[in-house]
Amino acid sequence: MKNRILIILFLLIYIVYHLISLNVSPLPWFDEVVFASISNEFASSGKLILKVAPYLAANEEITVYGPIYFFFTSTIIKLIGLGIFQFRIISLLFGFLCVVILYKYFKLFQINKKSIFLCLIIFLTDPIFNSSMHGGRMDTMALFFALCSIYCFLINLLGKFHSSYKLSFLSSLFAALAILTTPRVAFLLLPIFLFLIFYFLKYKKITVFISGIIWVVTIFLFYSIWFLYAFDSFDSFLRIYSNTAEAVKVGFFIPKLEIPLIITTATVIIISICYIGIRFFSEINIFSILIIILFYLLVDDTGAYSVYISPFYVFLIGNGMHTLDQLKKNKLINIVSAFILTACISIFALKGYVIFSSYSKRDPNNIAEFISINIPKGSKIIGDEKFYYAALDNDCDFQFLEWYKSDSYREKFQREVYQYDFLLASDRILKSQPNLFLLYSGNSVLIKVAELKMDNELNLISKKIGFSITDSYDCIIYKRKI
How far, in whole angstroms, is CA 14 from its chain's centroid? Predict the structure, then answer.
């Protein structure tokens, strides 16, 4: 009873933490604003157009991702409007759903309660996973659909594919939804296809063959519907995806914040192998390891994408701890569990401290009020992506200052075609890209209107844990004299 109360209390604190910090961590960033802009336009016109960068592809829809994420986010915008909290709530909710499906995984493989509790704490406090829930991207949604697809497949796997057609269809349906959220998630689904081939060759069972056909055909049919809408021809399809081909390559980039999870997983695997040898490499563990390997072979990660493999690290930990429990290694379990829990909760608490200690300077109300005082409604603004939501709050139009095309092309377009009224120069851009500001100021008369300057002392703790709070809404507003 006491443990149940502690668990409920932790979950309540965890949910409240995310709800309170959702609109301040992180500040609006490039990917998020791209997706928010597309979603906002999709909500109003039904078109997947990047309105913050019309100079990139005027009135041409962005079809490289798929429609599922934008359907959900545009629905939220229609219901409750567009803002930082409203837009990020989808990522947060699907993050919570990922936790639920991970719990279902553990129950499916009859992992003991102590190991389940440990693994859920690890996953809930994983810095990459927590950042992804706040990122305003589609990663948690795609991950949830992929985990559902794999879950249905694993039920089939455990049942040796007896009467498996319904589960095969459900697995392929969730796989299609995942791919139509973002094609990047395909590497998570590739092991299903490989396992289906392996099991057909091993058992020669017609049910495995039919399951494989159902799985492939269903995904093909669903993606074909999107293909017919999104692409004029197969050449158009190849052209669009060839532009993103650099995202598929051997990366082997390991984010600093993922290192504790990797070390923990490796430690548990080594201890398990010491006791049971190669028996540790069961089908499900091989499946998890294969996904992790494919990630490093196929995904050019910059940090955020590691969320796709976090559940499989955690699942390897759960299986390893369950093995030790079956061997009655209680003392070893307690030592390992205490170390893991202490590390996970400490990092989570430290990051929470960093966020809330800088809450006032990251509060979006500051920049919204600053813009409303100094910029008339209906103005055309160019600036750093972090000002996007505040500009829209003031009924202003907004375009990127620094993204897509060359600086000279973008400046000419915004000066001659867009005819911007105000330039919001963030403290970051003025310091890191002084030539960009000189380009704009050299071709237009820019008059300083107002400056927002807040306490911006560096937090040494944030540097130690790799979570910077040095960015803020500090900026200067310039009015363009026409």
Answer: 19
CB within 8 A of 147, min separation 6: which ones?
A: 98, 101, 102, 105, 311
Q: At what angle do helices 2-21 and 113-124 cross, to 10 degrees?
A: 20
Residue 441 carries which side chain, given as an amino acid letter?
Answer: S
Whether residue 255 is preceded by a cis peptide bond, meaning omega within 30 degrees of 0, is no
Residue 302: partners with Cβ closer than 8 Å, 6 or more residues away: 253
Structure-block tokens of residue 262: 């990797």
CB 437 within 8 A of CB 336: no
Whole-angstrom distance, CA of residue 70 vs CA of residue 41: 10
How far CA 218 is from CA of 52, 58, 167, 169, in Å, comes to 36, 34, 12, 7
422-426 and 475-481: which strand pairing? antiparallel
- 461-481 pLDDT tens trace: 444 445 555 578 999 999 998
Element (H, E) at 399: strand 397-400
Q: Give the distance between the most distant pair of CA atoms in the chain.
A: 79
C-alpha span between 315 and 310 (Å, rounded): 9
Alpha-carbon distance of 91 to 375, in angstroms, equals: 31
Q: Where does residue 416 rank: exposed (0-12), middle (13-18), buried (19+ CB within 10 A)?
A: exposed
- 229-259 pLDDT, tens digit per residue, is 877 767 766 666 665 544 445 556 788 888 8
d(CA 408, CA 396): 24
Token pair, residue 464, equals: 């130690």
* Model pLDDT for residues 205-232, shown as the tens digit of each residue: 888 888 889 999 999 999 999 888 877 7
